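Progress against Task 2.4 (sequence-to-structure conversion) is shown through the following example record, which the project officer requested during the mid-term review.
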Amino acid sequence: MSPCFVFTCPTQYLPQASTSLDTSSAITTILEANHFHLQLLDPTHFTRNGHHKLPPAGGRLRKLCPRYVTDPVPHLAKLSQAPVTILRHLHGMGIDIHGTDVVYAAQCSNSATLTITASADASALASCTTYSGSVAIPTGLAVQPDGNGHQSLSVDGVLQKITGNLTVTYAAMLSSLSFSSLKSIGGFELGQLTVLSELSFPQLTTVGSLNFTALPALQQMSFGGTGISQADSILITNTGLSSLQGINNLQSVSTFNVNNNQALQNISLQVTSIKNSLDIEANDGYVTGLMTTFPMLETATNMTFRNCSSVSLPSLANVTQDLGFYGNTMQSFAAPNLTTVGGLIFVDNTELTNISLPQLTSVNASYQIANNTMLKNVTGFPKLSVVGGALDFNGNFTE
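Structure tokens generated for the chain above:
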């Protein structure tokens, strides 16, 4: 689909006699050589320095203002094949273009990453239903700040899918980010956004990966309906999130890592399987520890819990590699349906007084219970008959 460039001019610059340009004109030739289609739409999309707006103009290439026909011609031939570049050029000539109101089609695929630095870029992207490629919003965002110097960016249109990654990093003054129609992203990365406090993706349900790093002002996520239901990997570290509302209805995930989120007090996920690894540590500011619940989880490959006040795994039946608990403050742990595990480790859980695994029959790798100072007995494994690796019990046990 070829881009469409919308061009009008203020009334005071119109000639007394209308000028009509055909497709052989200089400006048309240059534009079409660069794959642009010149078209007049409702000129209310444009104003110039507060001047009043034109009534709707006629058809294609009619009644153009000579001032703006002659001014841009020498420059247009040098412009790259991107409609937002032309829009910025006109803005530099004194035409104030409201990018969110201008309607033009955009190229909806790119082997290189599409960089959004202004509202006009966002409008071009929003006109695509599916964008085949990756999108980046970097530092140096050219969006008008509010009274606090903060910036907001909204992508409102028909965009439902980005096949590649959406990456937003080091946009130091970006406080609000919204994609109103986006449902699916190949990869979603937010990083080093120190004032980002509003995140709104009301239709988003599927991501390949989600990587949120260094977002200290972000306290909540707003995702579509019941939130994200499908993701391959999740990493959330060093954020201000107080809950994981928005991803708590995940049905399956391969890798799940949540660490160093000082305001996060609980995690409750509905996943039934974890294909690779789960790591939870150093949340809740090390104060009381994180409450963790996985009521539907049945199978996992590798699971590590640190600095948790409670861990609930009522449906867990099998862990193929290690199930490890390190430095938690939980007083008891029970997994009533767990039958087999690779390695089983309880180390430095200073408040732990009871472990109950009534159906566990085999530990296929290392079995370690050490330095759990309140644990006096290890009788909660009545059916355990096989330990395939090293056995390490260290503590003040009475039975």
